[in-house]
Amino acid sequence: MQIINKNIDSGKPFDWGKTSSDYAKFRDVYPQKFYQKIIERNLCLTGQSALDIGTGTGVLPRNMYKYGARWTATDISENQIEQAKILSEGMDIDYHTVATEDINFPDNSFDVITACQCFFYFDHKRIMPNLYHMLKAGGSILILYMAWLPFEDKIAGASENLVLKYNPKWSGAGETVHQIDIPDCYKENFELVYREEYPITVPFTRESWNGRMKACRGIGASLTDSEIIMWEQEHMELLKSIAPDEFDILHYGAIAELKKI
């Protein structure tokens, strides 16, 4: 499904369904430290019901499944949900293709609602009341994010510059460590009880880093097929000149927990 948001990429259309196969193969890259931050908040564990909004290929519920929560997951893209179901074979995860703004599970359905790498996409004035009603008393919204640091990591910076060469409107560039932004509309019904930002290094090969970059919004989700082919050829040549066969990319992780009041 094509998405147009004037606040993202200057309104350039993007469609995660275009890159679902690469997303499924190359974007399950969060290290254990990322998931440990969730466990330390005593969330998404045995006895809890969890809803993952904007789930993509189900990365979060798939990796947290072993900790015992009962998972429901939603995404606007049918292709992303199809990949999520394939990758979740043998797991009892309830997937739905639906825009977050249109989710309407019964009141008091979930102990925790998670949003991983997607919170800034939503129309918060529309979704906040529904999230509030779907959460049980004392339930939490857990917002998670991870990004490479282009000004501190040479390989990440060079790859990012090549994305901008092909897609100058891409607004995902130039990340620095910062707190997750919580829109003001949440203040009436939720209390911010925890937030943290922390460094993470993520291992890659040239192939897997190329795949990770190709599966970003600025390339696979928005460029034409011919542009993607040209970008990928140039990116692989770039990596051969600046990166060893295996390397780490410096990232940071961020987490914020909002508790229903």
Q: How would you describe the overall organization of this protein?
A:
With 261 residues, the chain is an alpha/beta fold. It contains eight helices and seven strands, in the order H-H-E-H-E-H-E-E-H-E-H-E-H-H-E. It has a seven-stranded mixed sheet with strand order 3-2-1-4-5-7-6. Strand 4 (110-116), helix 5 (124-134) and strand 5 form a beta-alpha-beta unit. The protein is globular, with a radius of gyration of 18 Å.
At a glance:
The protein is of the alpha/beta class and 261 residues long.
Describe the SSE topology.
Layout: H1 20-26, H2 32-40, E1 49-53, H3 59-64, E2 70-75, H4 78-87, E3 94-97, E4 110-116, H5 124-134, E5 135-148, H6 154-166, E6 190-205, H7 206-214, H8 225-242, E7 246-260
Parallel strand pairs: 1-2, 1-4, 2-3, 4-5
Antiparallel strand pairs: 5-7, 6-7
Report the biggest beta sheet as strand number plus sense, adding barrel if it closes: 7 strands, mixed
User: Structural class of the helix and strand makeup?
Assistant: alpha/beta
Question: Could you tell me the strand content as a percent range?
Answer: 25-35%
- Quickly count the helices: 8
Intertermini distance:
35 Å
3D shape: globular
| Count of extended strands | 7
> In which order are the strands of the major sheet placed?
3-2-1-4-5-7-6
Uncertain spans, ≥5 residues at pLDDT below 50? none
Q: Write the H/E string, N to C.
A: HHEHEHEEHEHEHHE
Helical coverage, percent range: 25-40%
Overall mean pLDDT score? 97
Radius of gyration, CA atoms, in whole angstroms: 18 Å
